[in-house]
Amino acid sequence: MNILIVGSGGREHTFAYKLVESKQCGNLFVAPGNAGTAAIATNVDIEVTDFEKIKELVLAENITMVVVGPEVPLVAGISDFFKKDVHLKEITVIGPSQEGATLEGSKEYAKEFMVKHSIPTAAYESFTSDTLEKGKAFLETLNAPYVLKADGLAAGKGVLILNDLEEAKQELEDMLANQKFGEASAKVVIEEFLDGIELSVFVLTDGKNYITLPTAKDYKRIGEGDTGLNTGGMGAISPVPFADKAFMEKIENQIVKPTVNGLSKDNIDYKGFIFIGLIKVEDDPKVIEYNVRMGDPETEAVLPRVKNDLVDLFKHVGNQTLNEVKLDLDPRTAVTVMTVAGGYPEAYDKGDIITGIETVESSIVFQAGTTLKDGNIVTNGGRVLTVTSFGENFDEALKISYKNIEKIKFKDMYFRTDLGFDL
Ligand code: AMP
Ligand code: GLY
């Protein structure tokens, strides 16, 4: 079958890498893709939200499966667009309906869903500019640190954690009255601070059945020791060593099952990934967020561990037969280390030549912000490429990634050298 991947990051390169392994994969297209996907599939220069152009491509190339990488087209309703079109409605779309995507598109909606289905999460209240004073009064009833979340999509920047009450009140005002994050902060969720260690769990569901994919831990801050600005993610480790059997059972029973059952009870059409961000508070998991897609760079550590035929898995999602699937995992640990352009996550250059990718041994390079220019692979984003390796434990795997990163060069390349420091 011919397949289209929507997106252009390391996550999408990893999907492409796994899909082309399958005998069932015919022509593979990526819209818009990057230099990494160009080497194994056909890139098509279409924006991820240009549904009409995507439709033209799908019909022209006889594509029967569409795998949606990022949240933006999902929140914009790409799955519903396919469902409602007589020519597209039979096509398998991996990605939830617009309503399902609201679990990521609105923090308040996600909180209401969790409360309704008794899924453990931080206590909260939400406020708008009309209730700003009530919001400030609510902050006064809490202890520091204060957690403020813009309700809508804010490219990973919409969560503020503040130690000072006055500062928290000022930020609340900036978000609600001064639109600090635009429309996304027209509503703000104020949440109880959860103290513990973070991990993520990934679920693939067909709306009725699900499989739980390996856990991962992401390193979000730019600086060593988790300091400095937030990024899209500087690396990931899978599995997370502290997520033992007993803890995974709690996650399954208290969080994954009620989530999938809740979607079904609420008649929410959901065929795709659920990425559940968790904090382990003492011995219990609590949800801090839902994402309606795979994580990036978590995908680059999680998917290489999945030995199943990915086309086959996705076909089972389309047919709602995931109950027939047995997950086959590589028991080793996988890590991925992200290299970024100097200056990221603030201003950085693009167009710098990348060399050495072909000299990498015993690791997999997944490209993110790259493109082809005059026959060279050049940088085209803040997060440039990530190096995935396997090992008996994360230290062993990291050594291999770090050794290979030394062979890759581009101007002002930066990466964190301390992944796993907190484990
Ligand atoms: P999010 O964008 O929802 O992933 O939030 C960004 C980061 O803020 C998370 O990765 C956590 O580190 C932190 N965070 C979010 N909610 C809470 C909370 N209730 N308590 C403590 N930390 C949180
Ligand atoms: N790495 C975090 C995310 O994909 O949202």
Characterize the structure shown.
- By secondary structure, the protein is of the alpha+beta class.
- Among the domains are: about 1-95, Rossmann fold (3-Layer(aba) Sandwich), CATH 3.40.50.20; about 125-190, ATP-grasp fold, A domain (Dna Ligase, domain 1), CATH 3.30.1490.20.
- It is built from 13 helices and 22 strands.
- It has a five-stranded parallel sheet, sandwiched between helices.
- Helix 6 packs across helix 7.
- The structure holds adenosine monophosphate and glycine.
Q: Quote the average pLDDT.
A: 96
By DSSP, the count of extended strands is 22
- Detail the poorly predicted runs: none
Unique ligands: adenosine monophosphate, glycine
CATH architecture of the domain at 2-97: 3-Layer(aba) Sandwich
Give the proportion of residues in helices.
25-40%
Q: Please state the overall shape, judged from the principal axes of the Cα atoms.
A: globular
Binned strand content: 25-35%
- Total helical segments: 13
Order of strands in the sheet with most strands: 3-2-1-4-5
Summarize the structure.
By secondary structure, this protein is an alpha+beta fold. The protein contains 13 helices and 22 strands. The chain is globular, with a radius of gyration of 21 Å.
How would you describe this structure in keywords?
5-stranded antiparallel β-sheet, 423 residues, Dna Ligase, domain 1, alpha+beta, Rossmann fold, binds glycine, single chain, 5-stranded parallel β-sheet, binds adenosine monophosphate
Q: Helices and strands in order, then pairings?
A:
Elements: E1 2-7, H1 10-20, E2 28-32, H2 35-38, E3 42-43, H3 51-60, E4 63-68, H4 71-75, H5 78-84, E5 92-94, H6 98-105, H7 107-116, E6 124-128, H8 132-141, E7 146-150, E8 159-162, H9 165-176, E9 187-191, E10 197-205, E11 210-212, E12 217-218, E13 221-223, E14 227-230, E15 235-238, H10 245-265, E16 272-281, E17 284-291, H11 298-302, H12 310-319, E18 333-340, E19 364-367, E20 370-373, E21 376-379, E22 383-391, H13 394-405
Parallel strand pairs: 1-2, 1-4, 2-3, 4-5
Antiparallel strand pairs: 6-9, 7-8, 7-9, 10-11, 10-16, 12-15, 13-14, 15-18, 16-17, 18-22, 19-22, 20-21
Helix pairs in contact: 6-7, 8-9
Adenosine monophosphate (AMP) is lined by residues 122, 147, 156, 159, 161, 191, 193-194, 198, 220, 277, 288-289.
